[in-house]
Amino acid sequence: MTAVFIGAATGILSGFGIGGGSLLILWLTMVQQLPQYTAAGINLLYFLCCAPAALVSHIRHHLIEKKIALWCILAGCLASPAASLLAGLLPMHWLRRGFGILLLILGFRELFSRTPKQ
Fold first, then answer.
1. Per-residue b or e along 21-31, where b marks 16 or more CB atoms closer than 10 Å to that residue's CB
2. Which locations, inside or outside the cell, does it occupy (predicted)?
3. 21 pLDDT exceeds 90?
4. Residue 72 banded pLDDT, cuts 50, 70, 90
5. Average pLDDT of the residues in 64-86
6. Global confidence as pTM
7. 73 lies in a domain?
8. Does 18 score more than 80 pLDDT?
């Protein structure tokens, strides 16, 4: 039942753009003791279920800039296979540390960035 609650909570947070997928990876690796590769795969499946609802909501509220989105899609399609191959070659502890550092950088950025006044 805990897993269902965690999945629902991270799904709701993802819908708000808070980073539920990152929280899910932390849960799967630190609490459930799953390998990083397995947690990443589960996170990708999870993303496929959560992303369409969030995308529809963002489109409906005109929060998507189509030109920027197109460039991001193209860059993602090109970079994903290379990143996947690289991740398969790296030792697990490097991936965990790299992911931890990324989360710290993003956390500090969110804490200390100023939002422009509207």
1. bbbbbbbbbee
2. Cell membrane; Membrane
3. no
4. very high
5. 91
6. 0.55
7. yes
8. no
CB 46, CB 7: distance < 8 Å: yes
- Which residues, including other chains, have CB under 8 Å from residue 68's CB and lie 6 or more apart? none
Other residues' Cβ atoms within 10 Å of the Cβ of residue 65: 10
Domain assignment of residue 117, yes or no: no
Domain span holding position 28: 2-112
Q: What is the dihedral of CA 40, 42, 48, 54, to 10 degrees?
A: -80
Q: Is 118 among the domain residues? A: no
Over residues 20-37, the mean pLDDT reads 84
Distance CA 17, CA 54 (A): 8
- Which residue shows structure tokens 């909501």? 57
